[in-house]
Design brief:
The chain has 4 helices and 2 strands. It is an alpha+beta fold. The longest helix is centred in the first third of the chain and has 15 residues.
Length: 88
């Protein structure tokens, strides 16, 4: 638990708690955007549902055993890249 932290950090932590508490759907998309626009807070999203990730992300990274194998702007995340690295 962080005891001594700035008001700004406390506000960001509170906003992140709200975001995580209300996961799912369109409300989550809008909260993520507001956090970024109003607080200049970047959200690291670890998500397996690609349609959702494509809606809310600006950039992506694909890791294989902890090492980056692909990354870039979200519009560069092609179906070929998905089938090569993310399919089960």
């Amino acid at each position: 638990m962080v005891v001594n932290c700035s008001i700004s950090l406390r506000q960001r932590c509170f906003a992140l708690k709200l975001l995580l508490r209300h996961r799912g759907g369109r409300a989550h998309d809008e909260r993520s955007l507001r956090l970024n626009q109003e607080l200049n807070l970047t959200v690291l999203l670890v998500e397996q549902k690609l349609p959702f990730a494509r809606r809310v992300a600006e950039r992506f990274a694909v890791l294989d055993k902890g090492r980056p194998v692909a990354g870039g702007n979200i519009d560069e995340l092609s179906d070929e890249l998905v089938s090569e690295h993310l399919s089960v």
